[in-house]
Structures are given as C-alpha cells and as structure tokens.
Design goal:
Layout (H helix, E strand, L loop, with lengths): L2 H44 L7 H41 L3 H7 L16
Length: about 120
Amino acid sequence: MNQSETAVLAYWGEHRDQLRQSETQRALLTNYLLVIAAALSALVVQQRFAAETLPLSVLITLVGVYGAVSVAKYHERAEYHLTQARALTRVLTDCPAPGLMETSKPGRNTSDARTEEVPG
C-alpha cells in the first residue's frame, strides 16, 4: 500500500471514529433527557396536576425542544462523517492494492485452480 492510500485509509478511519462518537453522544444525550423528562413528569403526576406544576410542564417542553435540536445537530454531524467516509471508500476501491485487484473482480480467471470431479 503506497503512502497516499495509507493517508486515505487513516482519514477514512478518523471519519468512522467521529461518526461513532457522534452517534454515541446522541444516544447518551437522548437517554439523559428521557430520564429528566420522566422524573419531571412523575413529579407533576405526584402533585396531581396542580397549578403549581405548570412551570415543571413548561420545563418538560423546553427539555424536549432542546433535545430535538441537539439530536438533530448530532444527526447532521454523523451524516457528514458518513458521507465523507463513503467518498473515501470510493477512492479506496477505485485504486485497490496490487494484490487485491485480481481477487476483487467477479469474472477473474480461474484457470490455475484445480477442479476435481466428484464421482456420482
């Protein structure tokens, strides 16, 4: 593998790591916000939906809006890294390593392979 292929492969790995990190952060934030919203909802229900719990209901709504915006941003970042990784994958498959070119073609020449007939 030459130096440019090694650099492309390293760049591809970095984008895949960033994609994985964005998805992990998105999942973690979603779980935290679900726990917070569930706890606030339980508090509102425990107080029997009294008028004093209206600020908590507004807070639940704000947590939901914050979560939606944040998760959309994480999704945008993950899509960017996935797009970049796919583009780098195309670059790597367009110029494969010398040993891989022969084995990656579906119609490769198999004249050197030995075929044995199974007695029937």
